[in-house]
Amino acid sequence: MDFFEIGTFHYMNNKLYCEHKAVEEIIEEVGTPAYIYSKKHFADQYRTFDEAFKDVKHAIFFAAKANFNLNVLKTFADLGAGIDVNSAGELYRAMKIGVDPSRIILSGVGKTAAEIKLALEHNIKLIKAESFEELLLINKVAGEANTVAHVALRINPNVDPKTHPYISTGLAENKFGIDASEAENVYLEGLKLENVMLTGLDMHIGSQITTIAPYAEAIGKMAELFKKIKSKGVPLQHFDVGGGMGVRYKNENLFLPSDLAEAVKDVLKDLNCEIMFEPGRYLTANGGILVAEVLYTKKNREKNFIIVDASMTELIRPSLYSAYHHVQPIKLTSRKDIKADIVGPVCESGDFLAKNRTIQECVQGDKLAVMTAGAYGMVMSSNYNGRRRPPEVLVDGDKFYVIRSRESFEHMLWDEELIK
Ligand code: LLP
Q1: Contacts of 261 (CB under 8 A, 6+ apart)
Q2: 1.20.58.1000, 2.40.37.10, 3.10.180.10, 3.30.70.2740: which CATH number matches 9-38+285-412?
Q3: Which of 209, 254, 257, 289 is nearest to 8 (CA)?
Q4: β-bridge mates for residue 245, sequence order
Q5: Cα of 289 from ligand 1 centre, angstroms
């Protein structure tokens, strides 16, 4: 069995550690399933990204959708990041950690009037608009609030990011952004609106992108557009590259932030404005694992199954995108390898964490770590089958903090009432 060591997750004396803490010790206290995050990995990733673009005037906005635990948001805010939020709920979270609203930006393909109003009340840095109708609504809501909204238009550059179709966003067939051929018109129409100021141009072509070429192509196209729009009198001050940088789940060949910077920095510098980034996965994915306990093992005429106490309700990525996550024991033994499906207790055939995986033979009570679970893990969890959300733990050196407790039954029912 191959095992995966990445970031601060490593084996010492055959035991999996997060930073200086044995995962086993954490699990003894919090039980399974549970998410465990490494603060150091988050900080290392942030600094690597920030450092790569040091020659470009830039700002990093952590995409809260990747992992919105308050303590994770706070970790990035303390490092100097802003927060990219996608809804009123994420805005509420960002406000809760006390980050200055001038470091919050609001994204999203279908924002409601109430969300726009809330963003204006908090006086955040920027609201994105993804259609002309949305721009009109922002103008109306800002007018009612007697204010002028700073807006960036998200333009769809029609570039193939070569990633999973469900997480590709920058193709003309995707719902996101304003078609590049419409952009100039929308900007010029926008100039006539009294309660919006069009200060930015935004793109985001997709997620888990593993090659530089799609970025270079999209940035090139959008930079030309930026200059053209600016020359027509639109007061553009920021160019937002979005997020999307891929991470290692398996054996992907990846580029580094410094490689990306090298490839695009001249084009970006030439724009003479603030360059914004919205990484999510790059900052958190390999800083998190989901730990599960083996409940049963069984064999039928086709396969071996390892049934664990985590499922698609804790981590939906394998079921939803057939995503690969490495799964490995938190204690390595000399038992032989077998091939097995690692599955959860949920009543769906699509409920699996790994298929046909070579793994050391397991016995009841073993604990398995599902790796690379720090992005789009807990945030996509659900209560399906009446399952309670797992706790989240943040490790810092040799200490750990329970940053979200396991959901209780009362918790799950607090907003339901029987009709009297
Ligand atoms: N900015 C915008 C406007 C976005 O829509 C996204 C992600 C990001 C930034 C951050 O992208 P990242 O750096 O994390 O790739 N649930 C899927 C990923 C969906 C990504 C949605 N948008 C998954 O588990 O793979």
Answers
A1: 52, 53, 55, 56
A2: 2.40.37.10
A3: 289
A4: 209
A5: 19
Query: According to DSSP H, which parts of 3-127 are helical?
Result: 23-30, 39-52, 70-79, 88-96, 113-121
Of 287, 282, 215, nearest to 245 by C-alpha is 282
Note the pLDDT tens digit of each residue in 351-406: 999 999 999 999 999 999 999 999 999 999 999 999 999 999 999 999 999 999 99
Active site residue 347: yes
Quick: pLDDT tens for 131-175: 999 999 999 999 999 999 999 999 999 998 888 877 777 777 788
Radius of gyration of the chain (CA): 23
Query: Is 103 buried (19+), middle (13-18) or exposed (0-12) by CB count in 10 A?
Result: middle
**From the alpha carbon of 243, which atom of ligand 1 is closest?**
13
Nearest residue to 411 (alpha-carbon basis) of 396, 391, 393: 391
| Separation of alpha carbons 275 and 128, rounded Å | 15
Query: Can you read off the two tokens belonging to residue 385?
Result: 């089958």
What residues does CATH 2.40.37.10 cover in the chain?
9-38+285-412
pTM of the model: 0.97
Topology classification of domain 107-279: TIM Barrel (3.20.20)
Cβ of 120 closer than 6 Å to ligand 1, yes or no, is no
